[in-house]
Design brief:
By secondary structure, this protein is of the alpha/beta class. It has 15 helices and twelve strands. Bound molecules: nicotinamide-adenine-dinucleotide (NAD).
Length: 428
């Protein structure tokens, strides 16, 4: 059944608005409103009990004017061609705003991976590559992990591709395990990238990080390293983090009066981002309700869990002290909440700029694979800092020049870069 407002329609509407602000030639806009290529294919898999189950796979290459398409593969029951199209388009803008020479792509399989055994998962991902190998590759389209897919699956996919092309080809896919072609620093990359942009925004807003407090939503990969970065790299204090408790099936906020120790909390957090609440209480932490994080009297809010968390209702709980919102998660602020932030002059670092550290380090992984030479973690993070700082500056400068908010400015920077590449290649 087709849903009325779907992700792809939303992605097109966002694009149309900024294309209007840029006075983009309607013929060029039409080219960018649609993916360049879409693949839908069948993947029959022999299950452990001997039966054959038919899966369907998708890959969408939205635009590759700036370089090979880049984007993850999602295994999720709600995946549709339209969610994959939207995510592919957003990847085009994310790679362009981060100024990495890649285009936008995304893939998916509608499946709940928790229902498959390890060997069924392996056969499914190898089957995905069997169908797509002619249309992916280090110079064509480079997938990566996303919701429901893991570094191990990327390792199997890289192996299958290498067998089919007849030579070792690690650069076909990123997010591989370290030691199997993966990059050091990938684990920290998104969260630290968030903090590099926070640091630049605080300079711009003349806020002193050492006298600043932050509150975070979520305590998974992104939020853990954003919290660690805020404390260790900037010298700030973190009032609280929140998380989804898988046993209690509800979310909580974990806080401490003098500021939390993110390293300690990380040591009592499982791989799904659930904190051991009893250990936290024993260590002097307070457990508050799910929304407490958004109400804290802090300078910086970092939503790092889910989409739609700062909405028309919850935005009214945000303290007047908040000057900066750094969107670690994808789509955490709804358009209604965005309007409130604009009115209250809260500075927002938009998601596809703020959390671009992940894809930037995936790009570094591909570069290292190409050279067959691997950087130290320090080298990776230094290069990431340079890229994120420049990306932030480009967007801030665009916002100032055109008197627009950071989200619109980020779209403007991204679309301009893609259009310029299309011009230089003679497509338009
Ligand atoms: P994750 O699964 O590692 O962590 C998610 C965290 O959110 C967990 O701590 C979980 O307990 C918490 N959570 C879930 N529901 C919650 C709720 N209702 N209230 C409070 N906390 C809740 O995920 P992640 O990789 O950290 O990704 C987080 C967000 O960042 C997602 O929007 C993702 O798309 C985006 N993102 C991630 C990366 C990356 O490299 N990991 C890159 C770009 C964007």
């Amino acid at each position: 059944m087709e849903i009325t407002v779907n992700a792809f329609q939303m992605a097109q509407a966002q694009f149309d608005r900024v294309a209007g602000l840029l006075n983009l030639d309607p013929q060029v806009a039409e080219m960018l409103r649609w993916p360049m290529r879409e693949f839908k294919f069948m993947i029959p898999v022999r299950m452990d009990d001997g039966s054959i189950r038919t899966f369907f796979g998708y890959r969408v290459q939205h635009n590759d004017a700036r370089g090979p398409s880049k984007g993850g593969i999602r295994f999720h029951p709600a995946e549709t061609l339209d969610t994959v199209r939207a995510l592919a388009m957003w990847m085009t803008w994310k790679c362009a705003v981060a100024d990495i020479p890649l285009g936008g792509g995304k893939g998916g399989v509608p499946v709940d991976p928790a229902t498959l055994s390890t060997s069924e998962k392996e056969r499914l991902v190898r089957g995905w590559v069997d169908q797509m190998w002619r249309n992916i590759g280090p110079r064509q389209d480079v997938p990566a992990p996303d919701v429901g897919t893991t570094p191990q699956m990327m390792g199997w996919m890289m192996d299958q591709y290498s067998k089919l092309v007849g030579h070792y080809s690690p650069g076909v896919i990123t997010g591989k395990p370290v030691g199997g072609g993966g990059s050091l620093g990938r684990t920290e990359a998104t969260g630290f990238g968030v903090i590099y942009t926070v640091r630049e925004a605080m300079k711009h807003l003349k806020l002193d990080p050492e006298n600043s407090w932050a509150a975070l939503q979520g305590f998974g990969n992104v939020s853990q390293y954003a919290a660690i970065g805020f404390v260790d790299l900037l010298g700030g204090k973190v009032a609280c983090v929140s998380y989804w408790d898988r046993d209690d099936r509800m979310a909580y906020t974990v806080s401490k009066a003098g500021g939390i120790d993110p390293h300690y909390l990380q040591s009592i957090t499982d791989q799904y981002g659930t904190i051991d609440k009893d250990k936290a209480i024993q260590a002097g932490y307070t457990i508050e309700d799910a929304d407490a994080w958004i109400e804290k009297d802090v300078d910086v809010l970092i939503p790092g869990a889910l989409e739609g968390q700062i909405n028309a209702e919850s935005v009214l709980k945000v303290s007047d002290r908040v000057k900066l919102v750094a969107e670690g998660a994808n789509g955490p602020t709804t358009p209604e909440a965005d309007e409130v932030f604009k009115r209250n002059r809260v500075f927002v670092i938009p998601d596809f700029l703020c959390n671009a550290g992940g894809v930037t380090t995936s790009y570094f992984e591909g570069v290292q694979n190409d050279m067959n030479y691997y950087w130290t973690k320090t080298e990776v993070l230094e290069r990431l800092d340079t890229k994120m700082t420049q990306a932030f500056e480009d967007v801030r400068e665009m916002a100032e020049r055109h008197g627009v908010f950071m989200r619109d400015a980020a779209y403007m920077v991204a679309i301009n870069k893609v259009v310029q590449a299309m011009e230089l290649r003679g497509w338009i």
